[in-house]
Amino acid sequence: MKLSTKILMGGMALLMASTMFIGCPEVAGETGSIGEDLELTNDSTTGYKRGYKSLKTKHTSASALITLGAMNGKNDNGDGIIGFIYHIQDVSDSKGTPTGAKNFGLVGLGRNKEGQLMAYSSFFKKVAVDDTNINKKKNFTDLKGVMIGEDGCEATEYKGTLKTYTNYTSDITKPVTYRVDVVAGGEDTDKDGKVEDGEGDGSYIITVSTVKDDNSADKKIVGYTIPAKETGDTKATQYDLGIYTNAYKGQTLTGRLELVDIVNETEVAE
Ligand SMILES: [Ca+2]
Ligand SMILES: [Ca+2]
């Protein structure tokens, strides 16, 4: 496997898009950090174009650096959203058979044409997604294709309101990087400073921060809590992580997501 794999998703026609994330994750360094360059073009004049990818690497807690690429400033709300996905869980029916739907958390970042940071945190349940479902009908809907919030939809979204942080403004002609920490909540039973697999209470504490030169968190911008009753867990558990992209109409979204500081790392799947 190559040490560096660029994931390019741009320039493909709207209806032809099928495999937008290509190749294996980049693996480098002793901690096995994983990162991908992202590019997604939405040629449509309406709606969103969404990409979802599982990184197939399991962790109880993980942090990601999200780099929002340079923008042309032609759209008020910017080019779109890059999101860090965690707790990817297959949903099973009462007989234990996977239904195809998934539960997962998502922390999304973007910036408007003034360069102001926009952020939100969601927890989705029973959502239809797969690694190649950009532009498919069943994308961030329930398994029947019913949109979240519409009558009869079996999928749900916890919170997820996009807010603008006017104190955090960057030059849109240049990339900017923020850090997202997704940390298992509850008691660190063995007091080693980390809530590991089997410790904790099943909740998550999430922080979005500015970043220092060494990639550690600098200033906290916003925090979120996902309660255990929303995740359905009673203790910290390893789940796959992933990447979300959402290009707004007529826009090309570029950027990068890189994992750092991961807890209970297992083998990196290729
Ligand atoms: Ca320990
Ligand atoms: Ca511990």
From TrEMBL:
Record has Signal as a keyword: yes
PROSITE patterns for this protein: PROKAR_LIPOPROTEIN (PS51257)
Organism: Treponema peruense
UniProt keyword list: Signal
Organism placement in taxonomy: Bacteria, Pseudomonadati, Spirochaetota, Spirochaetia, Spirochaetales
Signal sequence, renumbered to the chain: 1-22
Protein name (database record): Lipoprotein
